[in-house]
Design brief:
Radius of gyration: 22 Å
Largest sheet: 8 strands, mixed
Helix content: 25-40%
CATH superfamily of the largest domain: FAD/NAD(P)-binding domain
CATH architecture of the largest domain: 3-Layer(bba) Sandwich
Number of strands: 19
Low-confidence stretches: 359-365, 412-423
Shape: globular
CATH class of the largest domain: Alpha Beta
Strand order of the largest sheet: 6-5-14-15-16-13-17-19
Distance between the termini: 43 Å
CATH topology of the largest domain: FAD/NAD(P)-binding domain
Strand content: 25-35%
Number of domains: 2
Number of helices: 13
Amino acid sequence: MTTPLHIAVIGAGIAGMSVAILLSRHGHRVTVFERRQPSVPQGAGLLLQPVGLDALRALGLLASIESQGTRIDRICRVDTASATAFRVVYPSGLHDHAVGIRRPALYRSLWNALTNACTDVRSGVCVHDIATSDGATWLTLDDGGKSGPYDVIVVSDGVHSRLRLRVTPSVEVARREQGALSVDVLLPAACDPGQLLQIHHGHEEYIGVLPTGVDERGKHRATLFINKSQSQVEALERGDFDAWRLALASKYPELHNSLDGLTGFDALQHWSFAHVRMQTWHTKHLVCIGDAAHAFDPQLGMGANMALADAITLAAALRLTGAPQVPIALAAYQAARESQLRTYETASRTLSTLADSAGAFGAAANRLASGFASKLPFVKRRIVHAVCGYAGLEMTQWQRTVDMFSTFRGGPRRTLAIDPTSV
């Protein structure tokens, strides 16, 4: 290896922790800045698709994550208004399933790996700005101090990042009125623990039930998602909780036993949605990854998966890089991520447009997506490939990247590719 790079990672989310773990293991000097004090975040469940499981294997965390979550073999989308159903069954391959897991469990596993790999993790430290002088790149901190110089600065401070403007001022941020309520509940008795269930009641209402694992009492848990805008949530909170809960249970009898334990709106979290798109994700010494660089509609279920893919791709680009080659490595990173991320950006915007479309057009488009079109073999193959997280990805290069980190840790070389024609 050449002289180790001095790398700053701003933000200890999924992308930031993952890239810091890998680069630290390969001998680079990594400093992580996280503005919050260490804590286990609250959070809804998330679905780790095969592409995310590949990345976790590269991180050496796959077995731990699978033991804490639950195996998801299929996704079922039901439209109650048109009585149509569409199912995605994961095809044969290394990961013939996804994993549903609570966000805190994933964070804990990444945090433990980070503190084992990286000795310089600075919690409760907020980075105010990034400055370059005399060819050196520094961080200025909120307390007036400075840190640096750094060979590479990784901006991974989330969807509301201010620092990404130091990479490019051309950032599209579209905040949506639409959002979702989420709550951790017992898995409804009528729901299969191996299936993500999505229920669409007409055009405008959506319920998701994601199994997330087994609790200490041996009970199956799930995250319940209910799409609601900010104004709808505010109106709900002014009303009667029990009346709302009973109305919801009446409309969705599958949820009845899970809703019984809820006592008030304070048990639910509201998530707002935003799209983020950048034309370029890097300069000579700065690079944005994760939600700071791209944020998608949560109904795609790709945020955590793309953050993990960003992390191992960037770590691969910088693994054996010396300081003079950093600009080339960051350009190679963008080239490797471009096709996949642009594919999901387009899918995210299309999904949001359909979700926001009122009246007959939106309803017809949703029925078409759930019905006839989705049952055509070539359409279904593409849907399954996209659900797995592989759309737009050059599979040979992806396999090489995952294998490189897996063999570095002494793991076996295994075939990743899923043949979409087998669906």
